[in-house]
Design goal:
This protein is an alpha/beta fold. It folds into 3 domains: 79 residues, Archaeosine Trna-guanine Transglycosylase, Chain: A, domain 4 (Roll); 123 residues, Rossmann fold; 230 residues. The chain is 29% helix and 19% strand. α3 links the parallel β14 and β15. α1 crosses α4 and α2 packs across α10. The protein starts with 6 loop residues before the first strand and ends in a 14-residue tail after the last helix. The mean pLDDT is 93.
């Protein structure tokens, strides 16, 4: 390996570099000798750094040195500490967007399903949504039997069991209802069977007012306790939904109809260099042509939230962003948890040392787009552009939240790999080529080629058309092929 390919310096202001392979102590890089072994993806100092001095990556502080650090030393959790502490004060100075530099894709189209509600689906599926965990297995039995009976008449019949819907109080109860409402309304479902037990807190008498108006041809209900044979009754209803859903055909639609969610999981040090910036360009392309995007994982905005606040489209959006950040910090404090106790063990193993470092990498998925709105659990996208969504970084919970807010596709970046998938197509993007080659059965697209010097604009164009092909059904994602489709509903308080 040539010396220039041993490491990367992301920003000219940085005082660290990132190793592009395992490097040995005593190895020469850029004219100086490494004093430590540097694992793949980890950082090392390229300047002398004094105790207490900021460590700079991405052009921003990711923490401070806890000791004097010589040039060529491994920098990680043993000699770096976060600068973050508590709830902060913020000031609004008006939107400060840098104009995204994107190629014009204004005439881009895909083949999708136009719904009576005005929404657009990229799949034509039937979803079985339980109102409560007690009928989760019933839903899975119906899924299996219905797919045997009605094979190839839709894009598939899928059940989404969960463990909520009963013994919940207050906000948790309402959160469950709002998430289920959002899932039912997701346009990838051409038809929905809402399956109730009958005696749960979230019974149909309680849930239907939250659901509001619905198309009775598209959404049907079954109360298991009111049927002598709920499987036979359920299959009869699903047959009606199959007949209705099979009437929809793909038609040419503008790419501006897409709503794309952004998520990262199992990040490594390259996620913020390759996969997340690639998604940032996609975000800018979609918002530039009038499409909609959703960024979530609020704890992974901590330390980089001001970069999003600077792009708030209005004072109202700025204030909603402050509430989004501070309410999640209060949630941590409520349970006596350290607000900035992150990243996860997997992130740390991958070379991410502090929450600032993780957040600065994660928020690159937002590109340079203006933030146009902030959404709560189960709220649908109403304004075209970049939306922020409440919720934790947990993979299952955050992808469920994205689906419930209307995302038809989710872009999921990863440096360590994850087979998990949401109810909607979940495109896995590897931050490094080693992962793409090693876990090709999990990963859909390799952003690691950016490290080889291929221009990121060229990769972004290829990836954008990959997304359009996925939306058009010409490509199935690995989570779809492997059958990974799950939901998990956020819970805060008491369960009786």
């Amino acid at each position: 390996m040539s010396e220039k390919n041993k490491f990367v310096i992301i920003n000219s202001a940085d005082n660290v570099a990132v190793a592009l392979s395992d490097l040995s102590a005593g190895e020469t890089v850029d004219g100086f000798v490494l004093l430590d072994k540097i694992p793949f993806g980890h950082k090392f100092s390229i300047k002398e750094i004094k105790n207490g001095e900021n460590i700079i990556k991405y052009g921003y502080p990711i923490g401070h040195a806890t000791q004097d650090i010589k040039k060529g030393v491994h920098i990680h959790t043993h000699n770096l500490k976060t600068n973050l502490d508590g709830i902060l004060e913020y000031s609004y100075h008006g939107p400060q967007q840098k104009k995204p530099i994107v190629n014009s894709f204004k005439n881009a189209v895909f083949q999708g399903y136009k719904r009576k509600s005005g929404g657009v689906g990229v799949r034509n599926e039937i979803w079985i949504i339980p109102t409560v965990g007690c009928v989760g297995t019933t839903a899975k039995i119906l899924e299996r039997k219905a797919n045997e009976l009605f094979k190839n008449r839709t894009d598939g019949i899928f059940a989404f069991p969960h463990n909520m819907g009963c013994s919940q109080l207050g906000d948790d109860h309402l959160t469950t209802q709002n998430i289920l409402k959002g899932l039912i309304n997701n346009p990838n479902a051409g038809g929905v069977l809402v399956l109730s037990l009958g005696c749960e807190n979230n019974n149909l008498e309680s849930f239907k007012p939250v659901l509001g108006q619905y198309d009775s041809d598209r959404v049907k209900f079954l109360v298991a306790q009111n049927s002598d044979n709920e499987i036979e009754a359920g299959l009869k209803i699903i047959e009606e939904l199959v007949n209705y859903t099979s009437s929809f055909k793909r038609e040419t639609l503008p790419a501006s109809k897409l709503i794309v969610g952004f998520k990262c999981g199992g990040s490594d040090a390259f996620s913020g260099i390759t996969a997340n910036p690639l998604c940032g360009i996609i975000n800018d392309i979609l918002t530039d042509i009038g499409g909609s995007t959703i960024l979530t994982e609020v704890p992974e905005m901590f330390g980089a939230e001001t970069l999003l606040m600077e792009r708030a489209a209005s004072k109202e959006v700025f204030d909603k962003t402050i509430d989004l950040i501070n309410n999640f910090k209060k949630y941590f404090k409520k349970y006596n948890q350290v607000i900035y106790e992150n990243p996860s063990p997997g992130n740390k193993k991958g070379g991410v040392s502090s929450l600032e470092e993780k957040s600065l990498g994660c928020t690159q998925k937002s590109g340079l787009s203006l933030v146009v709105d902030v959404l709560d659990y189960g709220q649908n996208v109403k304004i075209h552009g970049l939306n922020l969504l409440a919720g934790p970084g947990n993979d299952q919970v955050s992808t469920t939240n994205l689906t419930a807010s209307g995302a038809q596709i989710i872009l999921f970046t990863t440096g360590r790999g994850n087979p998990f998938g949401a109810p909607v197509p979940t495109i896995k993007i590897s931050s490094n080529t080693n992962l793409f080659n090693y876990k090709n059965n999990w990963i859909d697209f390799d952003a690691g080629v950016i490290l080889k010097g291929i221009p990121v604009d060229e990769i972004a164009k290829e990836f954008f058309y990959f997304i359009l092909d996925t939306a058009s059904g010409r490509i199935q994602t690995k989570n779809e092929i492997n059958g990974y489709r799950e939901i998990s509903i956020f819970k805060n308080g008491v369960i009786l």
